[in-house]
Amino acid sequence: MQPVINPKYPGLAVRVADQGFAAYIWGSDFSFEVRAYASAQLDTPVAAWPLHPITPYRKCYGIDPEEFASFHNAVDSAIFMAFLDDQPVGHIVVSTNWNGFAHIDELAVHAPARRHGVAKALLDVAQFWSRKKKLPGIMLETQNNNLGACRLYERCGYVIGGIDHLRYRGIDPQTAEVALFWYRLFADPLEPPISPPASPRLVP
Description:
This protein has helices spanning 21-26, 118-132, 147-155, and strands spanning 4-6, 9-16, 32-38, 51-59, 77-84, 87-96, 102-109, 137-143, 159-164, 179-185, 201-202. By secondary structure, it is α+β, with helices and mostly antiparallel strands. It has a single domain (4-202), classed as Gcn5-related N-acetyltransferase (GNAT) (Aminopeptidase, 3-Layer(aba) Sandwich), CATH 3.40.630. The protein has a nine-stranded mixed β-sheet, with helices on one face. It has a two-stranded antiparallel sheet with strand order 3-4. Strand 1 (4-6) and strand 2 form a beta hairpin. One of its GO terms (molecular function) is acyltransferase activity, transferring groups other than amino-acyl groups.
């Protein structure tokens, strides 16, 4: 796949992950600040969810590049990296799930590079990959304390298909984290576009 650029951010490009993927992972900061837990509700905009403010803390999910070693150059999965001014700043891992949907196994952006369209560009590439494979849509999971991610998915046309209050209770019986399952459904998955979406676009 050729490099992909975002016309709104000319220094931003997305391409298939290369041999520098592991070094980029170990050298990046994927943490985010948690200020509240939301009471997510179906068919309700994220902005209208009731919030339960807490003492702010930073949360970081441990990311192991070896976990996705088999995803490179596979038939039913792919890893894409985002570059901002030629520096790796984000990645997305996408695969074909057992239920026929594309599944975003991981989406992360280096903290200093956020608000530059990186996550949106990665989601656009995942959507193009999914439609090219004639899949009916994309699904992913996030949590009710990652409100920035929830707002992003909502802006990108995702809707909540399920809310699981018990998913993390085995790890911590007192946790307030709730799993949110987001879906981006394609109107006509049997006729994928013959070219990528307008943003990002392929470099000639």
